[in-house]
Design the sequence.
């Protein structure tokens, strides 16, 4: 497989996953705000966290500095903003551009799911959406990404393109959970009284509430939640699970011994796994620990 | 809505109707089927078909004011039907033409017999911008220059097929020919009943084999399709062909030349490439040999091809044979190399180099078609009878300033066929691009891409200027007529 093709498949997959994660996070947020006012301090913290996780801390700080953060601002920035490289629209565009450049390596159903979605939202204008339509759009983003994954799972040959799409997906998901953990840790550190509140929010935002409650009898103990998010071996959003799956895909791509092509990636993943395992879940200074891990994700590229 | 019914064919040849207003025998079944649908059904199907192209991303890219937009080619559901008798003539004519043109190219970059014998004036070759002098004596694999050609045919007012243009460099549109058929089968399955057609899918494997003919390594040979990338207007064509032939679609940056061989960069290292079906123009192919500012090409490609380590198809330098000025000589070329009379006629073409001819043409600009010999896609072209005084004057000045750059042709009464647009049926002008592949032997793909000028009264069929496409059926012999 051409290196350019591998790159494009990897980023197509990551961007699809990212669009779904951001959309899920926003649909949680849209519901949360319904029952309270935007000025509510906790709501402000949530909106801040959403931007922190799905875009960047800098952007979240910038919005905060301007006064009250509104849901409108957050949706506009995370969903539509051209200047935000991680906005859902940009993710969809990048995923589609990458898919288009490797059309001969992905099956037609997968291409059509991505292409049709892009065509439907390409000219969408944020201001035209009612709350109801907004929810529908978020749902649509989520379902598009899930259908794409369904097609990949059920119809794609288990060859190199498949494994590379898997690596992209699991790395993106691991990074997302990690960013969520970091953002939540910061909040808990600022205000330890609200720790349970934020733990619940974190679980919702990684789409893990149901799974967690099934396992834990509804006790949102921070140490349980953190353990669940980091190391629960059966939860497909935990960092450990994601990295395990990414590693599996690399082994299938390269064989046990690997090759120089993925060597760097494998090394980095091993370092992360080691560090994650060393974390003590009672540790107060989680924030710092995640800060240390963060730089390892960013340069990861196939 | 008006149903599909005979209209005044006027002075044009019509594919479906006779001048007496009768349906031609080979269209009768289809005509009856179309009439059995009501307006709403046809409208719905029409929309479905259009949406299907968009959904599948079967688009071409249009550049205007520095902005690019992806467009689908408008599709018209009334197919062009070619009888088996007509097809025999087309097939033989195209095969003959490809053989003649190929012999010509081999001669021009070899002994130059045709020039020495004065059949073709030397300046036509040596002053031609597409002529590449240093290709003389180049080891062209199979001594073959044309892997895939697209020959544009029209029918005149008597229904006779004539060649309008040869495309021997990078003819595009083959994917549309296939997709028109696929969409047609999907959305209009009823139309096919009681017809026996040549299946075009069966031509895809021969296309791959023909490409592999050019490889010198027999087993494990690797062929690729070299594309300029997603921004190229024909990108979909490239994707489709690579996919169907089962070869890698590569960009210039994916290839590298080492020690006079070409390799592609894979995640597991370099892999040698034997045949390159390139869809990049000569000028951009190799910055070492041609334009040094090219970002699309591969440095050293020319050296590797000279050394015989890689086959580049279509061959470099083909532009000299499909140029509009040389076109007038193609019948002579066929006679010279093959000792045969051309089966398919040309459209009469007047060179503007001779002052007497130029004077004659300038006096009749409003009756003629003027074309720039170096441009394609319907650009820089004057259709006299449909033009304005300003445009006529503009072309008059252009011709006087640079007569070598233009040729004149009589306005052909392009044949017409019914189309369904904006909820109504009306006759539109059509032409036909026929594709032929050539390796160890020549093979003509049955049918072709019928292009239709969908704007009422328009003569321009190019997709960049509002033209659309139709499925094209070739009836098998024995079909009830």
Sequence:
């Amino acid at each position: 497989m051409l290196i350019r093709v591998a790159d494009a498949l990897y980023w197509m997959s990551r961007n699809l996953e990212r669009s779904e994660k951001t959309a899920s996070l926003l649909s949680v947020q849209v519901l949360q705000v319904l029952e309270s006012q935007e000025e509510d301090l906790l709501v402000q913290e949530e909106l801040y966290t959403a931007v922190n996780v799905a875009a960047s801390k800098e952007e979240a700080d910038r919005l905060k500095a301007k006064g009250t953060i509104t849901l409108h601002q957050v949706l506009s920035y995370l969903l539509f903003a051209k200047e935000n490289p991680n906005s859902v629209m940009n993710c969809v565009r990048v995923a589609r551009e990458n898919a288009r450049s490797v059309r001969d390596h992905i099956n037609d159903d997968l291409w059509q799911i991505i292409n049709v979605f892009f065509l439907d939202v390409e000219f969408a204008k944020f201001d035209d959406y009612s709350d109801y339509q907004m929810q529908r759009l978020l749902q649509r983003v989520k379902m598009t990404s899930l259908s794409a994954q369904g097609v990949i799972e059920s119809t794609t040959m288990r060859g190199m393109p498949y494994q590379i799409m898997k690596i992209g997906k699991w790395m993106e998901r691991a990074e997302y959970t990690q960013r969520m953990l970091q953002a939540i840790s910061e909040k808990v550190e600022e205000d330890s009284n609200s720790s349970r509140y934020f733990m619940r929010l974190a679980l919702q935002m990684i789409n893990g509430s149901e799974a967690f409650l099934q396992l834990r009898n509804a006790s949102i103990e921070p140490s349980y939640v953190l353990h669940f998010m980091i190391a629960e071996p059966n939860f497909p959003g935990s960092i450990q699970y994601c990295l395990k799956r990414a590693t599996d895909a690399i082994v299938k791509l390269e064989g046990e011994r690997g090759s120089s092509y993925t060597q760097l990636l494998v090394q980095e993943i091993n370092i992360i796994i080691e560090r994650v395992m060393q974390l003590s879940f009672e540790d107060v200074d989680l924030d710092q620990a995640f800060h240390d891990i963060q730089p390892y994700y960013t340069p990861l590229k196939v | 809505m008006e149903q599909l019914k005979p209209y005044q064919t006027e002075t044009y040849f019509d594919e479906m109707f006779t001048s007496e207003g009768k349906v031609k025998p080979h269209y009768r079944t289809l005509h009856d089927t179309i009439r059995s649908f009501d307006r709403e059904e046809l409208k719905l199907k029409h929309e479905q078909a259009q949406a299907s192209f968009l959904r599948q991303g079967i688009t071409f890219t249009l550049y205007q004011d520095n902005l690019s937009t992806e467009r689908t080619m408008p599709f018209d559901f009334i197919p062009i039907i070619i009888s088996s008798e007509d097809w025999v003539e087309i097939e033989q004519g195209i095969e003959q033409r490809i053989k003649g043109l190929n012999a010509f190219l081999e001669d021009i970059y070899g002994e130059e017999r045709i020039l020495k014998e004065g059949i073709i004036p030397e300046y036509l070759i040596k002053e031609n911008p597409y002529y590449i002098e240093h290709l003389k004596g180049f080891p062209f694999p199979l001594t073959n220059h044309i892997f895939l050609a697209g020959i544009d045919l029209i029918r005149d007012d008597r229904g006779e097929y004539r060649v309008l243009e040869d495309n021997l460099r990078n003819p595009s549109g083959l994917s549309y020919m296939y997709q028109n058929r696929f969409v047609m089968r999907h959305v209009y399955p009823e139309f096919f009943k009681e017809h026996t057609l040549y299946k075009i899918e069966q031509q895809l494997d021969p296309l791959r084999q023909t490409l592999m003919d050019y490889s010198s390594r027999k087993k494990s040979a690797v062929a690729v399709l070299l594309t300029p990338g997603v921004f190229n207007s024909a990108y979909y064509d490239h994707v489709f062909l690579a996919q169907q032939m089962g070869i890698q679609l590569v960009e210039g940056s994916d290839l590298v030349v080492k020690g006079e061989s070409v390799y592609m960069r894979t995640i597991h290292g370099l892999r040698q490439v034997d045949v390159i079906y390139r869809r990049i123009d000569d000028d951009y192919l190799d910055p070492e040999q041609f334009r040094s500012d090219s970002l699309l090409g591969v440095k050293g490609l020319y050296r590797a091809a000279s050394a015989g380590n890689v086959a580049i198809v279509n061959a470099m330098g083909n532009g000299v044979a499909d140029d509009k000025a040389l076109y007038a000589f193609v019948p002579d070329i066929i006679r010279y190399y093959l000792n045969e009379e051309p089966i398919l006629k040309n459209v009469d073409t007047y060179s503007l180099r001779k002052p007497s001819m130029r004077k004659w043409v300038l006096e009749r600009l409003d009756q003629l078609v003027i074309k720039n010999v170096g441009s394609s896609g319907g650009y820089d072209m004057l259709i006299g009878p449909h033009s304005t005084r300003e445009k006529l004057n503009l072309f008059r000045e252009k011709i006087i300033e640079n007569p070598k750059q233009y040729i004149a042709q009589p306005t052909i009464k392009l044949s017409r066929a019914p189309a369904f647009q904006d909820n109504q049926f009306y006759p539109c002008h059509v032409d036909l691009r026929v594709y032929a592949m050539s390796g160890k032997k020549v093979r003509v793909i049955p049918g072709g891409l019928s292009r239709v000028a969908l704007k009422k009264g328009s003569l321009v069929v190019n997709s960049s200027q509002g033209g659309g496409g139709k499925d094209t059926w070739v009836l098998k012999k024995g079909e009830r007529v």
Q: What stands out?
A: Residues 157-302 of chain A form one domain.
